[in-house]
Write a structure and sequence with these properties.
Blueprint (H helix, E strand, L loop, with lengths): L1 H6 L7 H29 L3 H8 L2 H9 L2 H6 L16 H4 L10 E6 L10 E2 L2 E8 L3 H10 L25 E7 L8 H11 E12 L2 H4 L9 E5 L2 E5 L4 E3 H4 L4 E8 L7 E8 L7
Parallel strand pairs: 1-3, 1-4, 4-5
Antiparallel strand pairs: 2-3, 5-10, 6-7, 7-8, 9-10
Helix pairs in contact: 2-3
The structure holds S-adenosylmethionine.
S-adenosylmethionine binds next to loops.
Length: 279
């Protein structure tokens, strides 16, 4: 019986090639099922369930880019992040208005395992507080890779910053390529604005319309764009005009950024009001 089945395999195809093909078909079916389940959950308004469902896909990315081979080639530019002497970039220092010698605290939301923010700015002591809901899994990954970041990421969801840090704590709040992964980016932006001191800034860098680019798969549910000077954050279910949402609390300015070749980005620079309501 078995030899009859084997005899029907076309010549020149090995058993391992057949098993690999079957495995590929099975993986594709699992992925499709995963996508269909996400679409259904989104239709039912279960954003947070879709989010926790997709969150762990993120670990595979970091496992790859933090491998010894990838770090050695530094194709993804993560080596700089491991340097405790990495300088805080000028696009950030120019937003921080403190006297020389004053300490500076920066919140980095959705920082990943190793924050991208520099920790050195002449004349200031800089404290970076990187937060991410995968912090514990990232710690395990870094230990496995024998890597020590200049500062470890803390386990906090962007939507819950206020439960962990008092309002008016930071000189700057930053998020890069992370709000599209969150289950409610507008709540995260509100929390980031609350977290900075009066008249201080929130700086957001995101690939333009990243959810469309990623075909709304997995964690990529949110698009970022600017339309007639307004910063727009939208999913297939909801759309926020961030300028309107923050009216009276902060002002929002946007510009394009082409510093990452092939990934046109939108930068939103949000300044919290200095009024008594925010003091
Ligand atoms: C593509 S990574 C970007 C990491 C880092 N900012 C960078 O640019 O390299 C997106 C990060 O967002 C995090 N994330 C997902 N949901 C989040 C949430 N609700 N609050 C904060 N971060 C979140 C993910 O765990 C992941 O580490």
């Amino acid at each position: 019986m078995q030899s009859k089945k084997l005899a029907s395999i076309p010549k020149g195809i090995s058993m391992s090639e057949i098993l690999n093909s079957l495995h590929r078909v099975y993986s594709r079916m699992r992925m499709r099922e995963h996508e269909m389940r996400s679409v259904l959950m989104l239709k039912l308004g279960l954003q947070k369930q879709v989010w926790s469902h997709g969150l762990f896909d993120e670990l595979q990315y970091w496992e790859r880019v933090l491998s010894p081979e990838a770090l050695k080639a530094n194709t993804d530019g993560y080596l700089e992040r491991l340097d405790p002497q990495q300088k805080l970039e000028e696009r950030f220092t120019e937003l921080i208005n403190v006297p020389t010698g004053a300490p500076v605290s920066i919140l980095d939301v959705g920082a990943g395992p190793i924050t991208s923010m520099g920790k050195v700015w002449d004349g200031h002591s800089v404290t970076v507080v990187p937060i991410d809901p995968l912090a514990e899994r990232y710690r395990e990954l870094l230990d496995k890779m024998h890597l020590t970041p200049p500062v470890y990421t803390v386990n906090v969801e962007g939507e819950k910053i206020g439960e962990h840090y008092p309002a008016n704590s930071f000189e700057l709040a930053h998020s890069r390529n992370a709000l599209d992964h969150c289950y409610d980016p507008m709540v995260v932006i509100q929390q980031m604005v609350d977290s900075v001191k009066p008249a201080c800034f929130v700086y957001l860098w995101h690939v333009k319309n990243v959810a469309d680019m990623e075909q709304h798969k997995g964690l990529h549910q949110w698009n970022f764009d600017h339309v007639n000077g307004k910063f727009m954050v939208s999913s297939e279910q909801k759309s926020y005009c961030v300028n309107d949402e923050l009216a009276g609390k902060a002002t929002v300015k946007c510009h394009d950024d082409f510093s990452s070749p092939g990934f046109p980005a939108v930068v939103a620079v949000i300044q919290k009001s200095s009024g008594p309501a925010n003091a």
